[in-house]
Design brief:
The complex is a heterodimer of chains A (76) and B (589). By secondary structure, chain A is mainly α. Chain A has one domain. Chain A has 2 helices and no strands. Chain A is rod-shaped, with a radius of gyration of 21 Å. The two termini of chain A are 36 Å apart. With 589 residues, chain B is mostly helical. Chain B folds into 2 domains: 27-335, no CATH class; 347-583, Up-down Bundle (Methane Monooxygenase Hydroxylase, Chain G, domain 1), CATH 1.20.58. Helices cover 78% and strands 0% of the residues of chain B. In chain B, helix 5 (81-93) packs antiparallel against helix 6, helix 6 packs antiparallel against helix 15 (302-321) and helix 17 (357-382) packs parallel to helix 20. The radius of gyration of chain B is 31 Å and the shape is elongated. The termini of chain B are far apart. Classes of the chains: A mainly alpha (76), B mainly alpha (589). At the A-B interface, helix 1 and helix 2 of A face helix 22 and helix 24 of B.
Chain lengths: 76, 589
């Protein structure tokens, strides 16, 4: 393979990788957005409910969502 | 109902005979003692050989002659063709032996079982063997007190031999005195009618007693006491050979197709041998008369001549049937087809879509979920939980409060008969399908394969904790019982949570959140387990042996749970990015 073509291919690959990274980043941001919405909803539900076991379940879910937010941020 | 009535009737008839005739009581006691002896011998050799018998059967069977010789020698030593047949059936089911090798061993074993007749006719009748029985019984019982399996096995063998000798002695005494009160020889039937009748009697007696060796012992003792005539005794011996196939057939009902094929081959062999023996019965009798002096047997020693006849016609059977062993194998395979259990059949792996990546990925996913459901059913049964009544956590609590019964779930058997084929098919299908996939698709297919492997690992892990679980759930120590019940609860609860993920109405985000909740619960459970165990040991509520079992089993349960979460992530989360987020380590960078 001539050097010119090889350079072109590498450039194309790097561009694609960059683009893919951008796509992934955008997707993660979308997921993060959804997670924040979910977090807000759960907080609201938790405030409303008076049942102890329901409250505990919602707290568990909140913790899980918080962890997912942290994990998502790490991937950006 | 009919079975119970037949048993009750059998007991009544036996009780009547025992009470009406002293001699019959002695003979029947002899048979009973003989059978107990066989039982002890068989058990003793199982313990005593410590796997040596299995090694011999595995190693020295690579050609037909070796297989027959090994079967002959092993049965001659162990004195139980049924023990050898049981080992052969177990080897066939795990494909350690081919069917042809197995049949070879059983043919040899048939010949080996004729040595019983030699022992009874040469030792049992000539010398007062009951005199040897007593020391054997005494030493046998003493050896059984040892903890070492070799000594225990030797004790059982001695006890078995002692009981066999004692049984023969009782039978001999019974027949001797019976002859003085009733002349059974008057019922002797000459000619072909007599032969057929006595073949039938021999066969029925063997089916009832479930041992051709015991029937032969009865025939020989009755013959030596003069209760039956020689030609009828020969017919009875042929009948015993046919009757013994029924025992093998009944035994094969519980086995897989290979066991049934073996029983079929055994039947073919014995029927052909019996036919030849019946057709040439007079020629064979003359041949035995000719050979007897060469073996140093007197012309009047009918019991030893019967033993010689028994060996010759079984040997003749081998010579006639063995060259056609491959035909018998093919016939057996054609008649008894491999039965595939419903759950082992793949439901979604279609050959037609193997080249269409998206479609084959869906097939793989569905089949893995099918495997998950089957594994789950087996695991819950092993944990003494019932799948059909386990939809919510309330159902689980209800089941946990019930007193657990001993679980009869044999996970190895379920794996071999129901799940191995399904697992194999998933691996095979995905390997072929991956050829037509892009790199990301190949990764997804690879993950499905991984989930199937994890499921099988989880199934085997469950088998490892099953024994302790059964044991400690019955324990009188409430603390250990509670801890093992907690392990059941953790696993049952996890299955309910994972099953809830298999819901199309649930969003992917909800599913991944639920998995995160499960992961957090697992981590908390694992930590609390170790603290609880420490506390129980410190306060001496459980013994050290209980603690080590609990620590090991808790670790296994934790590993099962982690693997199941991994499987849930692969099977129930479709979005690859969400999977990646879920798999990300939570520790700060």
């Amino acid at each position: 393979m001539p050097l010119n073509e090889l350079i072109k291919k590498v450039k194309k690959y790097l561009k694609q990788t960059e683009e893919n990274k951008d796509i992934k980043k955008n997707k993660i941001l979308k997921v993060l957005e959804e997670l924040y919405v979910k977090k807000a909803k759960l907080k609201k539900q938790k405030k409303k409910t008076s049942n102890k076991s329901d409250k505990k379940q919602l707290q568990n879910k909140l913790e899980a969502v918080n962890q997912l937010i942290k994990k998502s941020k790490k991937l950006i | 109902m009919v079975k119970n009535l037949a048993i009750a009737l059998g007991f009544l008839i036996t009780a009547y005979f025992i009470s009406s005739s002293e001699n019959l009581k002695i003979i029947l006691s002899g048979i009973a003692i003989f059978l107990i002896g066989m039982y002890f011998m068989e058990n003793g050799f199982k313990l005593f050989s410590g796997g040596a018998l299995e090694n011999i059967l595995k190693r020295f069977t690579n050609n037909l002659f070796k297989a027959i010789t090994t079967g002959f020698l092993a049965t001659s030593i162990v004195q139980s063709s049924s023990l050898i047949t049981v080992i052969v059936i177990s080897f066939l089911s795990v494909e350690l032996l081919t069917l042809a090798q197995g049949i070879g061993i059983v043919f040899g074993s048939n010949l080996g079982s004729t040595t019983t007749a030699w022992i009874v006719s040469s030792l049992g009748l000539k010398i007062k063997i009951s005199a040897y029985a007593m020391p054997m019984l005494i030493f046998g019982v003493v050896l059984r007190f040892f903890k070492n399996n070799t000594y225990k096995g030797l004790g059982n063998v001695l006890l078995g031999l002692g009981f066999i000798f004692l049984g023969i002695s009782y039978m001999k005494d019974g027949f001797d005195t019976l002859k003085d009160s009733i002349d059974l020889a008057q019922f002797a039937l000459p000619g072909i009618k007599g032969i057929i009748l006595y073949i039938l009697i021999g066969a029925v007696a063997t089916v009832v007693i479930q041992s051709s060796s015991a029937t032969m012992a009865i025939i020989i003792t009755a013959l030596s006491a003069g209760n039956i005539i020689y030609i009828n005794a020969l017919a009875l011996a042929i009948g015993a050979n046919i009757g013994t196939t029924v025992t093998a057939i009944i035994g094969s009902f519980a086995s897989n197709e290979n066991g049934k094929r073996l029983a079929f081959a055994h039947l073919i062999f014995n029927v052909i041998t019996a036919l030849v023996a019946v057709i040439f019965i007079y020629s064979l009798r003359d041949f035995v008369d000719y050979l007897a002096p060469l073996f140093g047997i007197d012309a009047e020693n009918y019991s030893m001549k019967l033993a010689l006849f028994h060996t010759i016609f079984n040997l003749l059977g081998i010579i006639i049937v063995a060259p056609f062993i491959n035909i018998i194998v093919n016939l057996a395979k054609r008649i008894i087809k491999k039965k595939v259990a419903k759950s082992s059949k793949p439901k979604y792996l279609l050959k037609s879509n193997i080249e269409i990546p998206n479609s084959s990925l869906l097939s793989l996913k569905k089949e893995c979920i099918n495997l998950y459901e089957n594994c789950q059913r087996a695991m819950l049964h092993a944990l003494n939980l019932h799948t059909t009544e386990l939809k919510t956590k309330e159902d689980l609590q209800k089941q946990l409060t019930n007193e657990p019964r001993k679980s009869n779930t044999n996970i190895d058997e379920i794996y071999q008969t129901n799940l191995k084929l399904l697992y194999n098919e998933i691996i095979k299908y995905s390997s072929f399908a991956q050829e037509h996939m892009t790199s990301p698709q190949q990764k997804i297919a690879g993950n499905f394969k991984k989930s199937a492997t994890r499921l099988i690992e989880v199934l085997k892990d469950t088998r490892d904790i099953q024994k302790n679980l059964d044991f400690y759930l019955k324990s009188k120590n409430e603390y250990i019982k509670k801890e093992y019940n907690n392990l059941r609860e953790e696993l049952g609860s996890l299955f309910i949570d994972i099953n809830n993920l298999n819901n199309e109405n649930l969003s992917e985000l909800d599913k991944i959140t639920q998995i995160e909740v499960i992961k957090n619960t697992l981590n908390k459970n694992d930590l609390s387990n170790s603290e609880v165990i420490d506390d129980l040991i410190r306060t001496q509520k459980i013994k050290a042996s209980m603690a080590t079992s609990l620590i090991n089993d808790s670790a296994t349960v934790y590993s099962i749970q982690k693997k199941l979460v991994e499987v849930a992530m692969i099977l129930f989360i479709e979005d690859e990015l969400l999977k990646e987020i879920g798999e990300e380590n939570n520790a700060p960078k």
